[in-house]
Amino acid sequence: MRIDLHSHSSVSDGTDSPADVIGYAVAAGLDVLALTDHDTTAGHASAAAVLPRGFTLVPGMELSCAYEGASVHLLGYLFDPRDRELEAELVRIREDRVLRAQTMVDLLQAEGVAVTWERVKEIAGDVGGDDVVGRPHIARAIVEAGAAADVSDAFDRWIGSGRPGYVTRYALDPVHAVQLVRAAGGVCVLAHPARGEGASTGAVPHDLVRRMAGAGLGGIEADHPAHDDAERDRWRGHAADLGLVVTGSSDDHGELTGHRLGCRTTDPDAYAALIAPATGALPIVGD
Question: What would the CATH number be for the domain defined by 3-89+170-285?
């Protein structure tokens, strides 16, 4: 069984529709895929509608968190999407994301970069009515405007932390985020912990991970394309010390990451242990 627990669609900052993501997952030889768009569940229904027989979709999302000025990413799975407290926070995050993106466009225009809010919205699309606009959409507009060679260059020059077009955002405290997902019946994994961004870039502090574990964190995404061998082994060790499951995932964003679904996978026993405590939702199996 081949399992990938981290992927994105055009509902957030991927390039492919949720249905197309399922098609790519099947072509990559996967048996289980978690769709984890940023701060939204809007793509789950359309992904579930095209599941081939026997293929499993794990409903999830990637929650925006921050700690001491640095981004921390939390993967939540199998929570109740109707949970009022969790949904209220998601609405606040998404509304702030739009305001942040608009402010970033204004700053870029002041710097002479010919991007417009209308074009950013066109790139982002309007899937499910959530208006989840992210920096990758702005980056693509910057590239179109000729102000960067590619998306990575756009981040480095213009919209990465500390750059002229960067704006901070509303994000959850990571420990509180774990508590929210667990209260909604879900389970949590710390995403790509060796890669942070913000005032204190780099790895997520181990003390914070320990506190997240105490709040109910279930696993650590040690096997990630951005982690080198030393980082992977270090985070596997941290997971063992804390009694957490180790997961492996592609963090695929479609064309932006080279359609890499299945380049990292999760052991079936680890997957079973991770989802066992979930009570908010069930994996969806195609029939």
Answer: 3.20.20.140
